[in-house]
From TrEMBL:
<protein>
    <recommendedName>
        <fullName>O-antigen ligase-related domain-containing protein</fullName>
    </recommendedName>
</protein>
<feature type="transmembrane region" description="Helical">
    <location>
        <begin position="69"/>
        <end position="89"/>
    </location>
</feature>
<keyword id="KW-0472">Membrane</keyword>
<keyword id="KW-1133">Transmembrane helix</keyword>
<dbReference type="GO" id="GO:0016020">
    <property type="term" value="C:membrane"/>
</dbReference>
<keyword id="KW-0812">Transmembrane</keyword>
<feature type="transmembrane region" description="Helical">
    <location>
        <begin position="119"/>
        <end position="139"/>
    </location>
</feature>
<dbReference type="InterPro" id="IPR007016">
    <property type="entry name" value="O-antigen_ligase-rel_domated"/>
</dbReference>
<feature type="transmembrane region" description="Helical">
    <location>
        <begin position="95"/>
        <end position="112"/>
    </location>
</feature>
<dbReference type="Pfam" id="PF04932">
    <property type="entry name" value="Wzy_C"/>
</dbReference>
<feature type="domain" description="O-antigen ligase-related">
    <location>
        <begin position="9"/>
        <end position="81"/>
    </location>
</feature>
Amino acid sequence: NYTQESIKSSIGTRVVLWEEAVQIIKRNFIFGVGQGDIKMELHNQAKKKGYSQIVEKNLNIHNQFLETFVGLGIGGFILLVLMLFGPILRLSGKFLELFIYFIIIVTVNLVFESMFNRLAGVFFFAFFYCLFVLFMNHVPKKENNIP
């Protein structure tokens, strides 16, 4: 368990936020707390433990996977994971390798930031995700032209 002193660093703060998010998930595993109540639940949890800086700085969970799980429960978490990794399993084409790199970059970002809480994050993901998914199956195949 972290102390008030440990949340002075960015990493320490994230670890505390993630620990508190896991506690909320344990109490609301199936349905979550609802998208509109994530911060309120996190701040209430932080107040109980004496982490006043989390409330003062109005911090979010800083992990999209945990944020989704807290808000939407196990169903929302599974849908997020399927949205990210599902196309890799069923799509093929010239850009599949590039799509995999894109998903790796996004996944790393989602672990350390609640990317979908910001319009810029949503736009970035939606734009490139749609490009990859729409065009991945429509890449023309090379034809063997034998003279």
